[in-house]
Amino acid sequence: MKRITVLATLIVIGAACIAAQQGAQPQTLEIEKVKDNLFMIKNGGGNTGVFVTQNGVVIVDTKNPNYGASILEKIRSVTDKPVTMIINTHTHGDHTGSNAEFPATVDIIAQDNTKANMEKMDAFKGDKAQFLPKRTFKDKMTLLSGADQIDLYYFGPGHTSGDALIVFPALRVMHAGDLFAWKALPIMDRNNGGSGIAYPETLQKAAGAIKNVDSVIPGHSPVMPWSTFVEYGQFMQWAVDTVKQAARDGKTEADAAAAIKTPPDRFKDYTTERAAANVTAIYGEVKK
Ligand SMILES: [Zn+2]
């Protein structure tokens, strides 16, 4: 009897340990090929882009904290090359969280405003400041050359004040970060300089200026065609215009939210659960 009790206790403790580990690292990462030398790692936060260049691996976004080892394990399943560069699309912890788990020698790049936003995060204070971006850009930056070329673009505020779009010209692929996270109303993070009013304009500037892209890696959903990114700009134009009109008409926030809850037919597969939060953001800007 006693032995059974002890055994049962050990099993319970074992189960608790597994549960605790899962709590620290709840999601299993999956790697998916986008092009021959470009992969996407899903789960654990935002989609991580993995671009295997001649001299090393460039990663776009590092997910939530504690995913560094798992990201590296997934990279190791496709290449032995070292990680040489991290590009952060924007400040949020589910895109920058594991920066500090890579060697301090790795080059880190982001848009100017994203660096400023990251400097405000506890995760990048003190010793951790060495995992802030080492190089930044304002509107456009080109990294590497030839088949390895990467073009970074910034067109204005949207999800935050520093959303970078990362284009791999040789592969005709773009990583959009959370400027285009889902086919859905987005998070408009005004505390980090995001803007509902500017959001559609930013998307449409990008759609007009960026050429020769066929596929887009969104911040949090499967790879989509470029045409969906273009359509997203139109969807956001409809949503923001509808809310601005509601504000001009003196409608309550609840009425404005109801007006964007059910999109017109051409946008019927877009999710609108952030309608109320979007209205609060846009009304806040309109009144300012
Ligand atoms: Zn985000």
Summarize the structure.
The chain has 288 residues and is of the alpha/beta class. It has 8 helices and 13 strands.
Task: Lay out the secondary structure.
Layout: H1 2-24, E1 30-35, E2 38-42, E3 48-52, E4 57-60, H2 68-76, E5 83-87, H3 93-96, E6 107-111, H4 112-119, E7 135-137, E8 140-143, E9 150-153, E10 165-168, E11 173-177, H5 199-209, E12 215-218, E13 224-225, H6 226-248, H7 253-261, H8 275-287
Parallel strand pairs: 4-5, 5-6, 6-7, 11-12
Antiparallel strand pairs: 1-2, 2-3, 3-4, 8-9, 9-10, 10-11, 12-13
Helix pairs in contact: 5-6, 6-7, 6-8, 7-8
Features of this protein?
35% helix, six-stranded mixed sheet, globular, alpha/beta, single chain
Profile the largest sheet.
Answer: 7 strands, mixed
Helical content stands at 25-40%
Element-by-element helix/strand order: HEEEEHEHEHEEEEEHEEHHH
User: Which spans of ≥5 residues are poorly predicted at pLDDT below 50?
Assistant: 4-23
Spatial order of the strands forming the largest sheet: 1-2-3-4-5-6-7
How many strand segments? 13
Bound molecules: zinc ion
- The secondary-structure class comes to alpha/beta
Termini separation comes to: 72 Å
Please tell me the overall pLDDT: 93
Q: Give the number of helices.
A: 8
- Report the sheet-strand fraction: 15-25%
Radius of gyration: 21 Å
What shape does the CA trace take? globular
